[in-house]
């Protein structure tokens, strides 16, 4: 039986036109009511879309890779992609060939520049306090006609370097001539903090653009010919490059000049027989170690279709997506970090443990380990990141081991280390406790500590770490979502 409203029904009273309403007033009232209804409908639609978006993003985790320059962020991202995005990884493999070639050629031309400086009598620059070893009096450097011949025979590699840079950098935006240099992304930027970029290292805007362009078959014979000429020239210089790299006098010159080649240089130069060949095929380890500096933000998406916490019934829609962002780590790039802190779920922070005796390239006044600690403290103490899961990689344990074996004393550069053993495990344990204490005391809210000693160039060992990180991240995000 239906409800028949009586004369006192409040809804009838509310909708009844006011007494004595003119036609013009009625039109105005109806327009107001229509506008109000449109606003109400728009709000309802906005709420509906927000709910649908939240439902879609329920299984999306935003991950930031942070740390100073050359801390291992890009290498960590490569490890994630190699393990969890294998199809895309394979598509890009051929694109890395030119990058590896540039790494080799750039190392050789850098060594040639050192030899030129030695032969011209140029006085070496003062030491910046890094791990360079002094050349003893009994290790006199004597360059011979053979060295002069090596320099002449390897001269074509300068043209190869220019050609590779042209190919890899095609379409890249020019690097800004001046950028703000700040210690943490939360520091104010002022005129005094703006510095002109003097870093000569080659850089591109994005991995993706370079790899997609280099990886696909060339459409023009000219492009194919350029790449073949590069490969032929490198292959023809293989024996001379090996001779240069293995020469004792050259090694002494590098030590005298305190030249620190990229960490990956030795890996490539020690394997020239394989890499400097016409039939060279890029390996996974080559890609992980290949250095290609980027000045833009790298975003990559990983999909975990069979994660350990997927829907146990296998319903559609199960699985997780990670949106990973790799941002520039030098002090001139940190002002760009702040916008990426919005709604971030996880920060993987990389602190290289081998840099206790080195200084920042962009600011030689600052010790690299000190810079890393300052940066970690600011991230831990940020209220904006109070609910963000923090994961710390104490990276480059392999390089730490090499330094300690050469007799470099940690306490010389880190007096608080005291008389503890100058060995890898005690050093890493000491630093782990220091970083753990910083997180405990600086964090606005209580949160768990996740710290892993790593060597991210060791892909097998890193794979085990990534499994643990993946499981921990998914578990914590499920708990936050009150799903477990």
Describe the fold and architecture.
The chain starts with 9 loop residues before the first helix and ends with a helix. The protein folds into two domains: 61-91 and 292-474, Rossmann fold, CATH 3.40.50; 93-177 and 208-289, GI Alpha 1, domain 2-like (Orthogonal Bundle), CATH 1.10.400.10. Helix content is 48%, strand content 9%. The chain has 19 helices and eight strands. By secondary structure, the protein is α/β, with parallel strands linked by helices. The chain has a six-stranded mixed sheet, with helices on both faces.
Number of strands: 8
Number of domains: 2
Q: What's the total helix number?
A: 19
Q: What helical percentage do the residues reach?
A: 40-55%
What pattern of helices and strands is seen along the backbone? HHEHHHHHEEHHHHHHHEEEHEHHHEH
Largest sheet: 6 strands, mixed
Q: What is the C-alpha radius of gyration, as a whole number of Å?
A: 30 Å
CATH architectural label of the largest domain: 3-Layer(aba) Sandwich
Average pLDDT number: 82
CATH topology of the largest domain: Rossmann fold
GO molecular function, one term: metal ion binding
GO biological process, one term: adenylate cyclase-modulating G protein-coupled receptor signaling pathway
Biased composition (Basic and acidic residues): 30-41
Protein name: G protein alpha subunit
